[in-house]
Design brief:
One of its GO terms (molecular function) is peptidase activity. By secondary structure, the chain is mainly α. It is about 75% helix and about 0% strand. The chain has helices spanning about 5-15, 20-30, 35-50, 55-65, 70-85, 85-100, 105-115, 120-135, 140-150, 155-170, 175-185, 190-205, 220-245, 255-275.
Length: about 280
């Protein structure tokens, strides 16, 4: 099997928010080719998207063992460590990745996300202060910068950063979700003291405490999408079965039943498409 098409298919699945399909695709491949670092990177991302922290750590370690100085391997090791609440290791891996490739904004974004998860929003904002200007094309980084700014009590600057992210990508899921969170938190901010409390609460919401796994964004929508997909399959099976019974002359099926099954399948298909959360990236 050629490696490039399979990894490209995994990338496409992950980009569409179909992490379960990506993991299913990659599992037999990493068994056959356990030395493929890129496959382990994608497996780590898929398992992080699925909320499988232990599995993500195993995949990240496998990649890191094969490529201990690779920036991408260090990035995914840091992401998995952050999710597990192992902040010292996550920060060390992210910092090492930045040293390996200091001009890569994704790595600085990962370091900032590790700092936010560790409860260090001031360090995250300082880390991204210069990088955000240089990487004006990176929407993910602008979102992280906005979150760090809000967590240190600078809501106007934070909104500006999120605005830049939406200018880069008007449909960026993380930017839109962050703006909604800002609006919700700011309802309670009526003076300096309440603004400081709102900022602290927001910063705390970004933290991942050791031993406590972060709730995956979009998990409820992902579950709804799964139920809708299963329902769609059963509606289509029922429609085929009714058609077969009608064709065999065993039973006269009323047109209303056909119409009901077709409408139900259509609704299930629409819910599946709408409910599936877009990939916003975990690194």
């Amino acid at each position: 099997m050629r490696t490039e098409p399979l990894l490209a298919e995994a990338d496409a699945l992950l980009a569409r928010g179909r992490a379960q399909h990506a993991e299913r695709l990659l599992t037999p491949f990493v068994v056959r080719e356990p030395e493929n670092v890129g496959a382990w990177h994608r497996m780590t991302r898929a398992r992080l998207d699925l909320g499988d922290t232990a599995g993500a750590l195993l995949a990240a370690r496998a990649a890191w063992n094969l490529d201990p100085h690779g920036a991408e391997s260090l990035l995914w090791l840091s992401a998995a460590r952050s999710r597990a609440g192992d902040h010292a290791e996550a920060l060390a891996a992210a910092a090492a990745a930045c040293r390996e490739d200091p001009g890569n904004p994704r790595l600085h974004n990962r370091l900032a996300r590790a700092q936010l998860a560790a409860g260090l929003p001031g360090e995250a904002a300082e880390n991204l202060r210069c990088v955000a200007d240089l990487a004006g094309y990176d929407a993910d980084l602008q979102v992280t910068y906005g979150q760090a700014l809000f967590a240190i009590g600078r809501p106007l600057s934070a909104r500006e950063a999120i605005g830049r992210a939406l200018t880069i990508d008007s449909g960026h899921a993380g930017a839109r979700a962050t703006l909604r969170t800002f609006a919700k938190v700011m309802r309670t901010a009526v003076d300096a003291a309440s603004l400081a409390r709102a900022a602290d609460e927001f910063g705390e919401s970004l933290r991942i405490h050791p031993g406590r796994t972060a709730r995956r964004a979009g998990a409820g929508r992902d579950a709804l999408a799964h139920v809708a997909r299963v329902s769609l399959v059963w509606f289509l099976v029922a429609l085929a079965a009714v058609g077969a019974v009608q064709a065999a002359g065993l039973l006269t099926v009323p047109f209303s039943l056909y119409l009901t099954l077709i409408c139900a399948a259509g609704v299930a298909g629409c819910v599946s498409a709408v409910a599936r959360p877009p990939s916003a990236g975990v690194a």
